Amino acid sequence: MGFPLRFLSSLSLCLLALLLHRATVTSGCFSMEREALLDFKAGIHDTYNRLSSWVGQDCCAWEGVICGATTGHVVMLDLRNTNIYDWKLRGERMNSSLLALSHLERLDLSFNDFSGIRIPEFIGSFKKLRYLNLSSTNFMGGIPARLGNLSSLHVLDLSDALHFTSHVDNLHWLSHLTSLKHLDLSGLNLTDVPDWFSSVNMLPSLQVLSMSSVGLDTIPASVVHINFTSSLTVLDLSYNHFDSTLPKWLGNITSLTHLDLFYSGFYGVIPDAIGDLGSLTFLDLGDNQLEGTVPRSMVDLRRLKELHMQGNRLTGNLSDLLEQMTNLIILDLQSNLFNGSMPSSVGKFSNLTELNLAGNSVGGVLSEVHFENLTRLRLLDLSGNPITISIGQSWVPPFQLRYVDLTKCQLGPQFPEWLQFQTQIEKLYLADCKIAGTMPAWLWNISSSTITALDLSNNQIGGKLPSSLKFTKLVILYLDSNRFEGPLPTMLPSTLDTLFLSNNSFTGQLPIWPDVQSVALSDNMLDGGLSSSICQWTGGLEYLDLSNNKLLGEIPYCLGKSLQNLYILNLGKNHFSGEIPHTIGFLSGLWHLQLKNNSFSGELPLSLKNCIGLRFLDLAQNNFVGSITPWIGDNLQQLVVLRLRSNMFSGVIPWQLARFEKLQILDLANNNFSGSIPHNIGNLSTMRSTSQYNDFCYDELDVFTKGQDLYYLKCSIKLMKSMDLSNNSLTGEIPKGIGDLAGLKNLNLSRNYLQGKIPWEIGGMKSLESLDLSINDLSGSIPESLSVLYSLSYLNLSYNNLSGRIPTGRQLQTLNDPSIYMGNADLCGPPTSKSCFDNKTTQIDIQEHEKEISDWLWFYISLVLGFVMGFWIFFGILFLKDAWRHAYFHFIDDVYDWVWVQ
């Protein structure tokens, strides 16, 4: 009996000790761990008091602190910032006393800001750590190699853990993390780590590898052995710069379920090995440079739920690719070269929620069969394909779409009635679909409930708009290029941001729309003035195009004060008059000012110099007077287009215009400018360059070139560089520096009083397509250098005083119109009928030849006389001056001795 009693007594003591220990844990936490947490708190800025609960003795009750149920030790420190606001903890220091948390298994400091310090070395001493998350913490410096000591680590997330200026030197320490299953290094700078793959390949248990946006530019083409072929399920190498073909060894990682190679610089064909990844549920090869047909092996990827291959140059028929992928939820193949007809098998994809084939060449006819089982479809984008959608007017779709884009598909002529059953549509794009008739009333009913973006532009839809659209939830409304008529709606919803109604037949005056930000009403029949409405548009209007209407009166004084966010203003082709108010200078952010084809008068307001961001200034065909003051060249340095054509400007062309670094259209034609062409005109940087890169776009610009007005639409302005100074009173010679404008395509100096010869340097204008020097007082011969302008397709040298033989170079022989040279009595040779062997022409040629000989003769005479005079002056002095002669020969002896020694 003694032994059992002693055993029970010992057991009772043990139970008592455990109970006492448990009581200690529940009443607080270990003091050493509590002090360590308080030291940590002292080293950070807690602006939003997220750690306000860190008071009292029981640290296990503090926010983010989790203790073990049995031991009472801190096992988890979770301070992840999950608040939608910027409630970050900001690091100043991190005390190593945190090592007192020796039982720590999980540490999460993600989405805070420790930009002032490095990742602490001591983190590598938490032997029991299984989870470490430092993502988006903005630490400075690199990654400490001591993290390789965390042999128990299962999850390591360092995505965006470092400040963008920090580089990672190596990843060798990764090889020690043999238990690692999840590794995320996304957003780090690994450009200095060429052997990244060998380091990662040492992790046999790895299941998730994310290295998105890390600057990788190398990937092995072949690998002898991959450690994680049977474990890796997620591989994300998106947003890198590999500039490589897709490696075939990817097909060996048969455990992959998620493969993301989006925008990583891969090119060439997709290897057949991709079909070996039969477990894939997610595949993204989008926005690379892949080409060719999709391999047949991809039909074996039957578990795919998401397939993204947009933005490549892939070809082939969709039927072969999609036949077996019946589990697809998202299919995105936009912006490729797929062709053929839409396979009817798409109708079997009962799980499909997004179908995006935009920007391909898929054709054929789509009927109800293609949609019969797509009950979950939410996004349908077939835009840019020559598809005919033939669906009965009484058909009721089995789905409820939220996004529809059928731009450039054949839908018309009737408005598709099946859309009235789509009560959840948010964005509806039916531009250029050959729809005619009037807009159905039910469409406005949908708009009142769900539609935020509606585009029906480039159709033949007519009728009138409701007087009020305030009942809708529209943010964007495009109805341009249709047949709408009648007055504009007087009331718009406060949500409406963009309203494009150009190229219709709207009439009446401009309503008061206080909230809209972008308005295009060009090419309508609007009349009246602006003062009664425009000054009440106080909601931040940025874009206003009222061109080609019947608007009249003056620009209201208040426009510059009320619309200070305006960056595009187009009032061209109206009946406006009066002066530009000086308040235009309040539009300091103005990029584009178009006032052409009106009756504006007066001088340019000095306040315009405040619009230093101005890139497009078109005041052509008005009644402006005065001179171009130098401030234009000094202040408006961003100008790309300057058109002052057909006004009454006078004075000289200031040399400051040559300071424009971005100018590519200079049109000062049909004014009263006098004086000479600025001598530094060849300094215009963009016109000197043959590059066509320019980020400037605009809808329409007319340029007089090749004897006619040519209109450049949308972004085609990038292709034109032009200088037109014609029909002024310019005198003097054509500057030789004009030949430096190698990128110029159109040069028109006609109808002036220019004198002298055509400069030989004009042959340097390699891009020139049109050259007009007609109706001037130019003389001398036509330079042979014109014949090397291989792009020249229009030439006019008529009505000058040119003489001699017309050059017969290869390019000039293609311009065989005699009218090019008419009005120059002393020119001869083809294509004119005048022979170069008559007495007068021969005499002119002889005189030209004699003049050239005379010039060369005087050059050589001057050269000989200069040599003789210099020779006798030098040796005459040596002959007469004994001291100079001795010094000279002494110098010669010294030089000879030095050379001999060397």
Strand elements, count: 57
Q: What's the main sheet like?
A: 30 strands, mixed
- Secondary structure category: alpha/beta
Second CATH tier, the architecture of the domain at 513-848? Alpha-Beta Horseshoe
Number of helices: 10
Low-confidence blocks of residues? 1-27, 839-846
What is the CATH superfamily classification of the domain at 513-848?
Ribonuclease Inhibitor
Distance between the termini: 117 Å
Question: What Rg, in angstroms, do the CA atoms define?
Answer: 40 Å
Assigned CATH class of the domain at 513-848:
Alpha Beta
Shape: globular
Whole-number mean pLDDT: 88
Membrane topology: Single-pass type I membrane protein
Family: Belongs to the RLP family.
Protein name: (wild Malaysian banana) hypothetical protein
Main location: membrane
